[in-house]
Amino acid sequence: MLGKTADGLFWMFRYLERNENTARLLDAGFRIALTRAAAAENEWTSVLTTVGAKPAFMEKYEQMKTTHVIDFLLRDPSNPSSVMSMIQAARDNARRLRTALTRELWSATNECWLTLRELLARPVRERELPFVLSTIQQQNALLNGTLHGTMMRNEIFNFARLGTFLERADNTARILDVKYYLLLPSVSLVGSSVDNVQWETILRSVSAQRSYHRLHKGDVRPREIANFLMLDLRMPRSLAFCYSKITDNLSHISKDYGIRQPCFEQAEAVFARLTDRSIDEIFESGLHEFIQDFIRDNNVLGRQIERDYRFYG
Amino acid sequence: MNDFMKFDEMFGMGDTHREPYRDYHRWLESQDTAWLRRKSDEAETVFRRIGITFSVYGEEEASERLIPFDVVPRIISSREWSRLVRGIRQRVQAMNAFLYDVYHHQEIIRAGRIPIELIADNEAFLPQMMGVSPPGNVYTHVVGVDIVRVGEDEFYVLEDNARTPSGVSYMLENREIMLQMFPELFARINVQAVGNYPKNLRRLLGNCAPRSCKGTPAIAVLTPGIYNAAYFEHAFLAGQMGAELVEGHDLRVVDGRVAMRTTQGYAPIDVIYRRVDDEYLDPLNFNPQSLLGVPGMFDVYRAGGITIANAPGTGIADDKALYSYMPDIIQFYTGEKALLENVPTWRCCEPDALRYVLDHLSELVVKEVHGSGGYGMLVGPTASNEELIAFRNKLEATPEKYIAQPTLSLSTTPILTKNGLDPRHVDLRVFVLVSSDEIHMTPGGLTRVALNKGSLVVNSSQGGGTKDTWVLEE
Description:
The complex is a heterodimer.
Chain A: H1 3-35, H2 37-50, H3 54-60, H4 66-74, H5 83-96, H6 103-119, H7 129-150, H8 155-183, H9 185-190, H10 196-204, H11 209-216, H12 222-230, H13 239-257, H14 262-275, H15 279-285, H16 287-308
Helix pairs in contact in A: 1-2, 1-4, 1-5, 1-7, 1-8, 1-10, 2-8, 5-6, 6-7, 8-12, 8-13, 8-16, 13-14, 14-16
Chain B: H1 22-29, H2 33-50, E1 53-55, E2 64-66, E3 69-76, H3 78-102, H4 107-110, H5 117-120, E4 142-151, E5 154-161, H6 168-181, H7 183-188, H8 197-207, E6 219-222, H9 231-241, E7 244-246, E8 251-254, E9 257-262, E10 265-268, E11 271-274, H10 297-302, E12 307-309, H11 315-318, H12 320-323, H13 326-334, E13 341-342, E14 346-347, H14 351-359, E15 364-368, E16 378-379, H15 385-397, E17 402-406, E18 412-417, E19 420-435, E20 438-441, E21 446-450, E22 464-471
Parallel strand pairs in B: 3-22, 5-13, 6-7, 6-11, 11-12
Antiparallel strand pairs in B: 1-2, 4-5, 4-19, 8-9, 9-10, 14-17, 15-16, 15-17, 18-19, 19-20, 19-21, 21-22
């Protein structure tokens, strides 16, 4: 496979995953904005921080208004991470590597682009937001379903999946990074300052409310939330889950190529840190530090994959 | 020419359907026009979803556009087709013999059959190719021959495309969509399949691999990239052939081979099906300003390390000035009279011809010798006074840049319009594959249709559309 193709696949699926995450964060933030107007500004600030768009946003707008945030994150062409910028970039990549995709997957990507372009042609009004967000998620689900239903399980699939899970791990870690203080044991001791809504918001932003409640019978505790998002191998957006997939896919490529590249060792080391200790040990040695180290290592791994598999010249 | 003389593919000169259309016409008569319109809209939706688009130069907005597709097929009988096949085969053979000669001994010039200026002063002539013999002496692996028809038995070759002809993906996708939209038609009428084109292309390219190549030849399609007008086709063909789709920056000369950068290091390529122009192949040997090429690729080529299809320098054979000599070229290399006629052509570089052209400008079609895509062309009978004056000035200033031809009344085929069926002018591009022991023509081709009523310009960049082209089984 061409290095360029691996590069295109990896980033195409990072972009698509990022869109899904942005849609979830907007959904969770919008819920806060609707139900507790006083907390809206704070919530939007953390959403923007999570997606790394706060400085760019502040440059453009003076106030943290809901309509501004929605527009900036969904449509703004000057925001390279806006949903529209991302789907455009993903579709450009898909055009470049069209020969690597099944006809069905290309069509699904193209249709996603056509649908979002139509949907985001004009500013999205608040009352349309839930529909728009669910359409983004539906389109992404279609795309992922087509990937699974039509693509061979080979290097092409592996590089696509690596993009998805590196991006997803980054996103979950960033949510934790912004909200870690809500999860500290000391907070729950105080009891009154943090209520369920904040925790629910965290769960909502990784689409994990129902799974969590089924698991813990409605008992919402910060320790359990942190464990769920970081170490639970059953939870498809947890750090550990992402890394089990990343090591899986790298191991397939290594077998296929008959050579283990340095990125494989790196991924295994990160995965080990998510499986060889309990959440209490992580709290003890410092939650925030752990998350920040993770974000850094995740980025380093991405760059190592690019080098090992000759994405660029 | 007046409309009275117009030949229609479905109805001939009268109003009863011609034999090849018998079964289709019977089917068509029992269809409801509104239903056909719905099918037509459905087809457009599918095309849009699949993203079968082309880019238009000079249009910022909507730079990806669909080529309009018409659901009424153009039907050719097997007898008509075999006649075209014989003529085109002869022409393409002569073309390759000519290219070999031009880049070796130039006997045709010594024999005085074509003037030396035609080669020496021609931008399409590549002196770097002198003495180079491509594998199997095949120069034009892929040729598109444009055929027009003006009567029941009158076919002309309008143009040869021997560089990087495009359109074959539309031939394949048009058939695909017709099969989806009107499956019952194909159960009723025996239409020859076109779908093997990519397989044949792969086989013929493989047959032309360098002698040093062992095992299955590694084939790559070289594209200028996603902003090229024909990018969709490049990706399509690479995908269908199971070949890699590469750009110049994926390639490098490694150990005397052209190699592509893969996730496992550099891997050598045996055959490059290039869809870039000569001057963008290799900045060291051709255009030093080009960012698209592969430095040193031409040296590998000369040393026999890679096959480039089509060979560099084939443009000399499809040049519009040379076109008028094709009957002589065919005679010279095959010893036979050309089976398919050329459109009579005035070479404006000749004073007598120029005088005639200037005197009859409003009746003629004037084309640039090096132009393509229907740009820079004058259609006398429909041109405004200003356009005629502008062309008169151009012709007087640089006559050698132009040729002129009579305005042919191209045959028409009905298309589906808002108000039912209505005839429009069409041409036909036939796709030819060449290897050292085989010349293969896909039974079908790309019928291009001038969608504007009365227009004779079929190019997609100028308001043209396409149709599926059926060659019937015997």
